[in-house]
Amino acid sequence: MNRAEKLAQLYKKANALNEELPKELMDKLSIYGQVLEIIGGLHAESVKAWKLAEAKRRETIASAIVYGAELDGVAYKTAKEKEAAAEVIGAEARRNEALAEAEAQRWRNAMIAVQETIQILKKKYEHMKEVAKGGI
């Protein structure tokens, strides 16, 4: 079972639980902990892919500058011309980096959302305990 299927299974289990029952609420918190662990791993992998894409972009641009950038068979001589040509050559690497960064941000946002859900459920549990003791 891949992680996407595992996440779907965990969310399905969590959604089937009744938050009004303390034991099921605690079970739900446990499930969200598992979800957070999986999403954290996905976030780490996506950050790695982003940083590797960034390194590739930098390498592509630096190589084009050092080894003499050529576009459409035209060799550039001045530093400014080489830098401009290198940026054009590195455009695809820059796009790949942006996509990897977006994926990393997506998983970071998902991780934050699950953390917030866990905090809300904890507050709900604390409230239940207070009500059970006769408080508000």
Helix content: over 70%
Q: In sequence order, what are the helices and strands, one letter per element?
A: HHEEHH
Question: Which segments are poorly predicted (pLDDT under 50) over 5 or more consecutive residues?
Answer: none
For the CA atoms, what is the radius of gyration?
Answer: 25 Å
**Strand residue content:** under 5%
Number of helices: 4
Overall number of strands: 2
Sketch the major β-sheet: 2 strands, antiparallel
Structural class: mainly alpha
Widest β-sheet, arrangement of strands: 1-2
Q: Mean pLDDT across all residues, rounded? A: 91
Q: What is the end-to-end distance?
A: 44 Å
Described by the principal axes of the CA atoms, the overall outline is: rod-shaped
Structure in a nutshell:
By secondary structure, the protein is mostly helical. Helix content is 82%, strand content 3%.
Describe this structure in words.
By secondary structure, the protein is mostly helical. The chain has a domain at 52-126. The protein is rod-shaped, with a radius of gyration of 25 Å. It is built from four helices and two strands. β1 and β2 form a beta hairpin.
Write a concise keyword list for the protein shown above.
136 residues, mainly alpha, 4 helices, 3% strand
List the helices and strands and how they pair.
Elements: H1 3-16, H2 22-66, E1 70-71, E2 74-75, H3 79-89, H4 91-132
Antiparallel strand pairs: 1-2
Helix pairs in contact: 1-2, 2-3, 2-4
